[in-house]
Prior knowledge:
Layout: E1 2-7, H1 27-39, E2 43-47, H2 49-52, H3 56-63, E3 68-72, H4 78-91, E4 96-100, H5 108-114, E5 120-122, H6 127-134, E6 145-148, E7 154-156, H7 190-193, E8 197-200, E9 203-204, E10 223-224, H8 227-241, E11 245-248, H9 257-270, E12 275-280, H10 286-294, E13 297-305, H11 309-314, H12 321-333, E14 337-344, H13 351-361, E15 366-371, E16 373-374, H14 379-386, E17 405-406, H15 419-436, H16 438-445, H17 447-471, H18 475-480
Parallel strand pairs: 1-2, 1-3, 3-4, 4-5, 8-11, 11-12, 12-13, 13-14, 14-15
Antiparallel strand pairs: 5-6, 6-7, 9-10, 16-17
Helix pairs in contact: 1-6, 3-4, 8-9, 9-10, 13-15, 15-17, 16-17
Amino acid sequence: MKLLLINAYFGGEGSSETDAMTFCPPLGLGYIGTYVRDNTTCEVEIVDPVPQKFSKEDVLRKAATADIVGLSCYTDVRFDCFDFAQAVKRVNPDCKLVVGGPHVFFLDQLILEHYSFVDVVVRGEGEETMKELVSGKPYENIEGITWRDSNNKIVRNSDRELIRNLDDIYVDYSLLPDSSLYAGDIELPTAMRKLRTVYMIESRGCPSRCIYCANDHWKRRFRTVSPERTVEKMEHLVKTQGIELFRFCDDLFTASKKRVFAFCNALKEKKLNVKFKIEVRADTAKEVLEALREVGCVSVSIGIESGSDKMLKRIEKGITRKQIIDVIELCRQLEMWVQGYVMVAIPGETMSDFRKTLKVSKLPDILGENIFRVLPGTPFYKELRLDGKIDDGIWFDQNRYKGMIFYWKENFADAPFSKKKAQWLALYAKYYHFLHRPIKLIKHHGFFVGLSMLMVALLDIPLKGYLYRIAFKYKHIYRKFTIR
């Protein structure tokens, strides 16, 4: 029996060797593959095509000899994923084709209706479910799957309970592509990227209720590996692989203050001289950040989203503008490298709100800009569906919604900005940050790349501003699109 697990993304047009730097290893598949290997006699292989430089044809050759092929599916590349799934069935019609991942959780029945070549959709955590599929357990007795019976009827089994003790599962990194293929965390300064890095996930879920986040597949519960077990893993990776930097990909590393302090104490007891990066919220307590910095936390990522209290309340972020400013200032005092993320085109956003975001966007060491988007199963998606502005069919309309569904006027009449304007505002936020943090820009990208990006910002802002002036005939219209 052979199980092939595939991160079903093959890169976009013009992809290059540097594409691999933008992706962390498929840790979710690593957990599943390790669990199946440890609890069955099944042969397991995990494929991540971009960093491994595998073409679709390369992966299809591997799929041709597999008994079960599992694909992870993400919303932005869902059509590519299912096109590839169909190709798998063409080269290996006898294999069982299983699809899982964040996109399919809320759309399981519709996926089977639209794609006859998919045999099983896994909902939620896949470790025990995949083990039972591999072991040949009858489908009707496997919790957490949606499948098609011999009469072509779609059957939705009961949900599977979440794993109670995350200490019972782990990732064997030997099953994953070599960590060197991922070339370090590109959000960090160039000097830190040279450190031998490993990616880890030591918790699942998030207690927050942000309206844009599809966290319901974790049932809004927060579970963690015990801090002692986490530190044991770190110690093992330091001794066996010489790891110097740990990148924790948890949605929120600091959700439990008690766990953070226990983690810090365990690191001290082991006397591990390591560096690590985590995700935090703007309301993280000072004593928590100080404790983390003391034991090696060199970088934090913070979801700023907006500098407007009105917008923060709209998306139910549960933080304030003042908290954002205070926590970034504190992290800078502690000499942590700060990555901040902002959004534009939030429902109800005005130019006044955006200008408030601009003022905050200059504070982090590096900025990530996003346009507000709609994901299946999120509170905002449910809100749109309740108002009759959207339906589940959009996830299958390839002619209109090829990739991400962004909240701009071309998709939703009541959205705050057009596609062109939303894209320009996101770009402007990036340039605004560049011009206010030029030294950090160079530290992040290196002297020559950073300087060239700074020059582009200096030239592009007045150029695009001039083009906008030409594009709008009347000054009173132009003013609405001008950032002051």
